[in-house]
């Protein structure tokens, strides 16, 4: 491997592609597949079988230092189109130098909760927003590496559309 990831240098959060949302920390959604446990005659135990393209609920967490205007506006009970733009540093093993590439995470979210945080002397409030994620795509240096959209039958990872045979079986 020529590129060795080293660190995220910086990231910014935007709503609707151009509204900068300020200083925050993000915990990205986990992509987990629904599973069925298989057991019965002919098996000496149980196995969990991931169901093709079927996804568990996804959640995004954003933490702000205080209940900022951005934290408050993202708590509005409506759809929020968010993108996190990341400058990621890597080491080029062949060229023996570092470089920067652009990572981006695009989500359509709906707020689940806002915790305004704590009040203590000389400390941040640690305001926390939690969102249900209904669409999620990840990009590395401009190339889409995944796109999952449970409401539109999309589950694409590394260029492979894993829901295509299911849509075909349904006549879509």
Describe the structure.
- Strands 1, 2, 3, 6, 7, 8, 9, 10, 11 and 12 form a ten-stranded antiparallel sheet that branches.
- This protein has two helices and twelve strands.
- By secondary structure, the protein is mainly beta.
- It has one domain.
- The mean pLDDT is about 95.
Q: Which regions contain 5 or more consecutive residues with pLDDT less than 50?
A: none
**Straight-line distance between termini:** 39 Å
Strand content: over 45%
CA radius of gyration: 20 Å
- What is the domain total for the residues? 1
Task: Provide the succession of SSEs.
Answer: EEEEEEHEEEEEEH
Helicity range: under 10%
The beta-strand count equals 12
Structural class: mainly beta
Mean pLDDT: 93
Secondary structure tally, helices: 2
Q: How is the topology of this model organized?
A:
Layout: E1 3-15, E2 19-20, E3 25-27, E4 33-38, E5 47-55, E6 58-64, H1 69-74, E7 80-92, E8 97-115, E9 127-140, E10 143-149, E11 154-157, E12 160-161, H2 164-169
Antiparallel strand pairs: 1-2, 1-7, 3-6, 4-5, 6-9, 7-8, 8-9, 9-10, 10-11, 11-12
